[in-house]
Design brief:
Blueprint: H1 2-10, H2 16-37, H3 39-43, H4 47-65, H5 71-94, H6 96-103, E1 107-111, E2 114-115, H7 117-122, H8 127-136, E3 145-150, E4 156-160, H9 165-191
Antiparallel strand pairs: 1-2, 1-3, 3-4
Helix pairs in contact: 2-4, 2-5
């Protein structure tokens, strides 16, 4: 009984070469598939996208492990995935043009405070999803946003509008007037004759 347990845990049911090749094929398929699906899948902007990503891992599990549930097979599969990812990341780091093709380019969604409706449609993002992403980063509304960029990683980077120079100058003048009013009130209190 003990030997069967150890055998089930550590003896491979499929050849080692197949155990290494399966994760490589699935890895390459997922990289290409997620690239074609767009940055939205990586951003997990709505429950449907999250469900797709969660079930995707379960769907390809059997393709990676095959008919082998051994610990040894799992370790070989996991090590293969980690090694392939390490090599791909290092390779793409040294080849910037190829990296841009694989990862994609960033996409400006808001420019100079104006929402780029066509780009939202190209990325299959609704205005509500964009606004929800802005809320997560502390913006009250899209009116406060100068620019928004959908990065290749799927995250959206927002930049706040800066106040106009006239508005800044106006606020500075009001603050200075308030300060002068307070100082004048204090001087009046000091110079007023004491009441008996």
């Amino acid at each position: 009984m003990h030997s069967k347990m150890w055998s089930d845990m550590f003896v491979l049911a499929i050849p080692v070469a197949e155990k290494i090749l399966r994760p490589v094929v699935v890895y390459l398929f997922l990289v290409v598939g997620l690239r074609l699906a767009g940055k939205r899948e990586l951003a997990q902007l709505n429950p449907f996208d999250l469900v797709v990503l969660l079930t995707l891992s379960n769907t390809v599990q059997n393709a990676i492990i095959g008919d082998d549930n051994s610990v040894t097979g799992g370790v070989i599969g996991a090590a293969t995935l980690l090694l392939v990812n390490y090599l791909v990341v290092r390779f793409l780091y040294r080849h910037e043009k190829l990296d841009r093709i694989v990862e994609g380019e960033s996409c400006t969604l808001i420019e100079n405070g104006k929402i780029m409706e066509r780009r939202l449609a190209q990325e299959v993002l609704s205005r509500q999803e964009l606004e929800a992403a802005a809320h997560k980063q502390g913006f009250g509304s899209l009116l406060e946003v100068e620019s928004a960029v959908l990065e290749p990683s799927g995250t959206i980077s927002f930049t706040a509008k800066k106040p106009a120079p006239d508005e800044t100058r106006h606020k500075e003048l009001l603050n200075r007037l308030d300060q002068l009013s307070n100082e004048l009130a204090q001087l009046k209190l000091r110079s007023a004759p004491p009441t008996p």
